[in-house]
Amino acid sequence: MATPSLKNIKACVFDAYGTLFDVNAAARAEQAALGDKWLEIADVWRLKQLQYTWLRSLQRRHADFWQVTGEALDFALASAGVSDAALRGRLMNLYLTLSAYPEVKTTLERLKSSGIKCTILSNGTPDMLAAAVDNAGIASLLDGVYSIEDVGIYKPDPSTYQIAVDCLGLAPSEISFQSSNGWDAYGAKVFGFNVIWCNRFDQAAERLPGTPDGQIKTLDELPAIVGAT
Fold first, then answer.
1. Which one is catalytic: 15, 22, 184, 213?
2. Does the active-site annotation cover 15?
3. 175-229 confidence digits (pLDDT tens)
4. 80 and 41 Cβ atoms separated by less than 8 Å
5. What's the topology of domain 25-95?
6. Which of 3, 20, 7, 2 lies closest to 184 in space, CA to CA?
7. Dihedral angle at the C-alpha atoms of 33, 34, 35, 36, nearest 10 degrees?
8. How is the chain split into domains, by residue range?
9. Of 32, 135, 148, 222, whose Cβ has the fewest other Cβ atoms within 10 Å?
10. CATH class for domain 11-21+100-225?
11. Cα angle, residue 80 at apex, residues 35 and 76 outer, rounded to 5°
């Protein structure tokens, strides 16, 4: 997938978890307690978290992302044979302060200095996102933090991407959307955004409609693509 040069981009909209914030950071911080199961638990936790968002959307049984995250963690711990209420509580608290990837702050600074608006559009609840943004020290670099709770259904439902269009007052063609999640990147492209897939984990291309415009490994490649200095 070639890396494009996008024109007339007025805003960059970022997914949060896995794109700006390291979803493995919570389990990694508890390696002493989880032992060599920590990465397995982190992977299952993330997988079930995503699966539950899709399944709840299909079932029309919405629960917010904090509840879904807790239910996914319960599944992951049970699958690994771990039963520890105190540990579970620590992991959930750590999820509120996931570390940002190293290039996030400088990327946002470069985009902002070029006059490009920067926002988050995430499955996370407003409280979860506020905690992560504050912990990363990037609040001043963001022009908005949008949660799918405004529409009560999870990405990739088209109504979730419409949130960014409505809040920014821009056409989809004026927005570049970034996600590390292939399914999210493809969904956003179907909606009509310019899309750069930040494929941090070297995932194979999805077999879905909506091939992204380009693919990068880390976000520090983005400013050049959207014409930021």
1. 15
2. yes
3. 999 999 999 999 999 999 999 999 999 999 999 999 999 999 999 999 999 999 7
4. yes
5. DNA polymerase; domain 1 (1.10.150)
6. 20
7. -170
8. 11-21+100-225, 25-95
9. 32
10. alpha beta
11. 105
